[in-house]
Predict the 3D structure of the following.
Amino acid sequence: MLNTILCILISIAFVYILANPKVPNSLLFLLLAPILILTHILDAATVWGFFANNSLHLVMIISVYASLMAVSGFDGQIGETFEHMTRNINGKNRERGLFGIIFVLAALCSTIMANSSVTMAMVPALYGISRRMKISRSKLVLFVIYASTLGGACTLIGTDTNIFANAALEEAGITPFAMFDFAWVGVPIAILGGIYMVLFHHLNKSYDDLEDDDDSMPAPRERTDDMARVMKRQQTGIFLGFFSFILILLLNSFDFFKALDINAYAYGYLTIGLLYVFKCFSWKEVLHGFNFERMFMIVGLLAVIKMITNSSLGSWIGALLEQSIGGSTSMYFIFTVLFIVTVIITQFMNNMAACGVISPIAITIAGTLGADPRAFIMAIAIAAGCGYMTPFASGTNQRMSVFAKSTIVDYMRYGWPLIIITYLCALLILPHVFPFF
């Protein structure tokens, strides 16, 4: 009984820390991990072992490369490509054609790059397109936010939420997802969502901001010849390192390559080290990419997940829900409840935190019912990525909101159909790809 009470108190503190924007997310681990050890809810070896979680290191590797891409101007290349491909669009349906191209570019780039990096890279091009084609900049910005979110849901590395869901499975001793497992449901969602966004772009409100000069626009960097040569070497190094790392991740999805036993995460760190060894980047630039705030947050989330799934609290929650629902259709009902609750929570807190709140409950429920939790966990990951209703539902929304005048009403009006599309695709597809039993 005492164990359950302690777990409940720790869970309340966990939700408070993640829901309060004034409290650093890293505090989650710095406070809760020692408490878990001192109260003997988890032993020290288990808590420190979370730092060895493969998905945690995948997040760190992606974070470093995202930072180095910004340093090298690699992200600017995306913006320039974007500008070039949309330059000559004209005609009666030019807006629809423009939005179609924007969607494809943003969604594709987001399958292997962080959503925030993709959207930030496109900002200069969006300013130019807005002035040249007389389209509201705010409208373009919101469109790109949604396009990158849909694209990021298609792969394991497309968003931190997918990676963290994978980490939750790994810590529970369940077979984690492969690189393209999310594509089964992510690609249909992206296609249908893209069609909706392009055909009904008029629902995305326009503002009078064509010539609006403000300080939020990133200042272009002046490049000398020496700087251009350095950036060229940096971009070449990133291309070779990052895309070879992605290739290893892809190949690890196949049994013939798994037999070679090449650890993709060790290889990822090796490529980062070589970028410094071959003088592509300074050590300060490399170190800047390691987001330690995010690292401690993820480890803290993993600790709470382990606490709930291993304690009497987790068993109690699962048994209570099983008794209250029951019936042959309970799995689909539980699936729907978990999805809706996650979508609601993610509109008001960090999407990884939303995933962390619901994942252990889903794993416990599945364990109580003797079901495979992977359909639940993937649905939660996808639902946690549905930051379509508020400007603060995700880091991408928050960072990009400074470039637009869109209000929370604008987000809701244009975003709610994407949540319906996501839910229907998840409900119809996931149980067949990852059967409950």
